[in-house]
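Reminder to self: tokens first, then the designed residues, so the page reads top to bottom the way the pipeline ran.
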């Protein structure tokens, strides 16, 4: 189970970043940042559904969001 958690965390960190690391604050935005966030549980389900139990996927998503806040793609909007 520890290796599954480590794999999912590594995957998230290679594809997304906590918004606090790169996005400007925006108190009028629903997530508090001037950048869209991603739903980690949905992204993890898309990648790992059928490989790991849903409960474990949800746990990893919750732990990452609790520790780091919302996550997003730094390259959002770049189509090149």
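Designed residues (80 positions):
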């Amino acid at each position: 189970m520890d290796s599954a958690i480590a794999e999912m965390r590594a995957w998230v960190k290679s594809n997304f970043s906590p918004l606090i690391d790169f996005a400007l604050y925006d108190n009028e935005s629903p997530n508090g940042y001037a950048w869209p966030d991603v739903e980690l549980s949905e992204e993890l389900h898309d990648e790992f559904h059928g490989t790991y139990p849903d409960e474990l996927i949800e746990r990893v998503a919750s732990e990452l969001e609790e520790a780091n806040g919302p996550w997003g793609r730094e390259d959002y909007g770049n189509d090149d």
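The longest strand covers residues 17-18.
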